[in-house]
Amino acid sequence: MNEKNFEYLRNQVKYTGFGEGLDKELKEKMQQQTSNFTLNHEVLYGTDRAKATLSFKKSDQSEMYFFNSYKVDLQKDNSKESLEQTFYINRGSNITMKEAYNLMEGRAVNKELTNKEGQIYNSWVQMDFKETDTNGNFKLNQYHQNYGYDLEAALGKLPIKELETPKYKEDLMESLKKGNLQSATFLKDGKEVKQFIEVNPQFKTINVYNTNMKRIDNRESKGKKQKEGEKVSVKQDSKKRGTSIDSEEPDIPKEKKRTKKQSNSI
User: Fold this and answer.
1) Where is this region: Disordered (predicted)?
2) CA distance 125 to 145
């Protein structure tokens, strides 16, 4: 077994969000020198159960192994059916396990991606459950940096208390970039109200929910700013299709309709 290869794969697995619990099994599998093998990982997000199967393949020319992909099987507590998606491992910024869960929940994740020319660019990525690619994958819509979604500006339109403190503001934005459904304190009529927010890059805004996870109209969520005469207009920009490629509070899952179980890959 190649020790440097093991160290590299161990770190790759760790920083893709699977921790260090698979280290022993990873080494044992590599020592067996089979052409390919898988590792299993399971995690709970609230009442949702996500099972990941990590796939490794041995090089045809050497004893080196490669971490190629991981498949997530998401079983929601309120659904008898599961949702499956395979995420490929790239040399650049991999989609972590938690980000994969957030994507499968329908939320958007902000990533540094690399194009075919090796150039790095920033983009919001969001799963399209209505369309699959030739491999049966749910496609990912990309909203590039030139698309014009400004997270800080979108947040600035809302009366959120955390925005008044630089550190809290930074933490809030970083959590949203990971695709989390994040709690926030709204100032309404001199009172503090806890609500939940998520990014909506397609419409260049923020989705707001109450504690019962009921969507709140943006005009209502603006509170005092709306009363002072600020008008809200929501312009539906045409979708841009792209190439496929955590001190955070536990996410509160949103109910999303899934009509059937599908095996897909990004």
Assistant:
1) 216-266
2) 11
